[in-house]
Amino acid sequence: MCGIFGYCGRRVAQPILMEGIRRLEYRGYDSVGIATLSGGRVFVAKKKGKVSEIAHQFAPAALPGTLGIAHTRWSTHGIPSDRNAHPHLSCDGKIAVVHNGIIENFSGLRELLEEKGHRFSSDTDTEVIAHLIESFYQGNILDAVRKALKGVEGTYGIAVLHAHHEELIAARNGSPLVLGIGTEEFFVSSDASAVVEHTKKVVYLDDGELAQITPRSYHVFDLKKGVKEKEVSTLAWDVQEIEKKGYKHFMMKEIMEQPESLQNTLRGRLDKDVRLSLSGIPREFLARVQRIMITACGTSWHAGLVGKHIIEKYAGIVTEVDYASEFRYRDPLLTARDLVVVISQSGETADTLAAVKEAKRKGATVLGIVNVVGSSIARDVHGGIYIHAGPEIGVASTKAFTGQLAALFLLAFYLAQLRSKPVPRPGMRQLQNIPEVIRKMLADTAFISAIQKIAEKFHAYPNYYYLGRGVNFPVALEGALKLKEISYIHAEGYPAAEMKHGPIALIDENMPVIFIANRGGAYEKIISNIEEVRSRKGKVIAIATAGDKLMSQKADFVIHVPDVEYELTPLVNVIPLQLLAYYIADLRGCAIDQPRNLAKSVTVE
Ligand code: AGP
């Protein structure tokens, strides 16, 4: 949450900074700000609003110079407003700071600084950093930042500039920061996706590190000790991947990319055997794992719930699933024979990252299923599976979810193989073919228009239920989450049979109920659940297996999905649910890629 971008080089900074925060806007979009340096002066512009709404107020002439920092905000301390927008300045206006994270001891620091005569002009926690640096400044900005950070508790990714120094200081503790290494120009960004159009060479800062960047060079230091040698990584992403490519929204582009992104997840990993290279996790350990604990947040947690079913079914290993935010604080019982699997698209979710640390502290081995290469979680786990879904910019996760499911299938099959369990050959073949199956679904105009018609009919309804059983209960949760996130409609997912234990009280003619009702699994039971809803006048929308005529009689509306092995149905069922949420949100005129109150990666607790 919050996007930071910095530039130091020979080009005019303002347009580069504007473009940088535009690309980072998915991380927060309640206010925007820029500070540049020119002729020994700091120039600042900041405003409440989205980049697209206020870009015209950031005139290049008012922000001169070839060095600058920029910020797009997701508010934690202080309402979205012009005065709370970053950058924040020191009293003398010579130091400017942008920050992502939370300074936990900010009120104590603020009191102390106010006693010393510092005057604050915002309600943010960030402003204390600017004043603290000012209080330590004695001619060396790197030194002042280092001293200030020693007194700061909490999480931060910061970029700092000072009027008298042609340099940019960046530092990280718990909030991601990456340096882009160009030719005689350097970039600082919360996320590699915003630098890829300038350079593919990056250095990932680790916690406790700070960087000093001038137009000619950069150096990375440890907060406590001296200079650090850092590896320069090469990004595999291409600039086209972060463009909308003619789609109205990133979310639709990412839904449509799923055949390709799934192909990338599976490529080279599945032929007659499953091949996973989990470098830091020995095969012998995996062959003897006693218990698996999956932990994640949001959509990734839903993928984890599907993972439990398939790991238990194919590999026969007891598997539990926990929210990372609960896991990290509940003192989980773990032993050295347990495998903790963390799932994260961004690889930066604060709770999931904390869960990795907690699991490692307790001696467990940690495997990550991550999309963003080089992210904090990817670098902190013992070994892992990259899903290679490419950049996911839409706040509502889509292609990452299906990539996570595919990775969990690979893991389940791989574990079964290592433990000499019968690996289901038809299932493996069908998984291999899933990208093609989804390609056909998305190209089928009758399928798409069935979903659009349902969206037109129901987009004004205020409440929805999503019901599924077994491996499709998590898909019901995911469908409900998609609708809530982007259309602001209240939706709840339940295991279908649980409906009778309370939620059924809400069923009447105003309640659309989406059943995930493929053949196989508990099909007959689902039919009974549908009857229960119908007899209370609920509107039934069913996701059903192609050719299921009975379902066409039972439900008010049916969306047919291809007939695949029952365990694989989550991969095809989620597609119409993603599309339904999208079309409903679009009809309601919602900001689909930037839903209110949300940010793509939740890097604060
Ligand atoms: C999904 O649509 C969400 N925006 C959100 O629930 C997300 O899945 C969650 O914040 C976890 O993110 P991660 O996968 O990047 O860790």
List the helices and strands and how they pair.
Layout: E1 3-8, H1 13-23, E2 31-38, E3 41-48, H2 51-54, E4 67-73, E5 88-89, E6 95-100, H3 106-115, H4 127-136, H5 141-150, E7 156-162, E8 168-173, E9 178-181, E10 186-189, E11 201-204, E12 209-213, E13 218-222, E14 227-228, E15 233-234, H6 250-256, H7 258-266, H8 283-288, E16 291-296, H9 298-315, E17 318-323, H10 324-327, E18 338-344, H11 350-361, E19 365-370, H12 376-380, E20 383-386, H13 399-418, H14 425-443, H15 445-458, E21 463-468, H16 473-487, E22 490-495, E23 512-516, H17 523-534, E24 539-545, H18 549-554, E25 557-561, H19 569-587
Parallel strand pairs: 16-17, 16-18, 18-19, 19-20, 21-22, 21-23, 23-24, 24-25
Antiparallel strand pairs: 1-4, 1-10, 2-3, 2-4, 5-6, 6-7, 7-8, 8-12, 9-10, 9-11, 11-15, 12-13, 13-14
Helix pairs in contact: 3-4, 4-5, 7-13, 7-14, 9-13, 9-16, 15-19, 16-19
Characterise the protein shown here.
The protein is an alpha/beta fold and 605 residues long. It has 3 domains: 3-240, Glutamine Phosphoribosylpyrophosphate, subunit 1, domain 1 (4-Layer Sandwich), CATH 3.60.20; 245-441, 3-Layer(aba) Sandwich (Rossmann fold), CATH 3.40.50; 444-596, Glucose-6-phosphate isomerase like protein, domain 1 (Rossmann fold), CATH 3.40.50. It is built from 19 helices and 25 strands. The strands form 4 sheets. Strands 3-2-4-1-10-9-11-15 form an 8-stranded antiparallel sheet, with helices on one face. It has a 7-stranded antiparallel sheet with strand order 5-6-7-8-12-13-14, with helices on one face. A 5-stranded parallel sheet has the order 17-16-18-19-20, with helices on both faces. Helix 16 (473-487) links the parallel strand 21 (463-468) and strand 22 (490-495). The longest helix is centred in the C-terminal third of the chain and has 20 residues, at 399-418. The chain is globular, with a radius of gyration of 25 Å. It starts with a strand and ends in an 18-residue tail after the last helix. The mean pLDDT is 94.
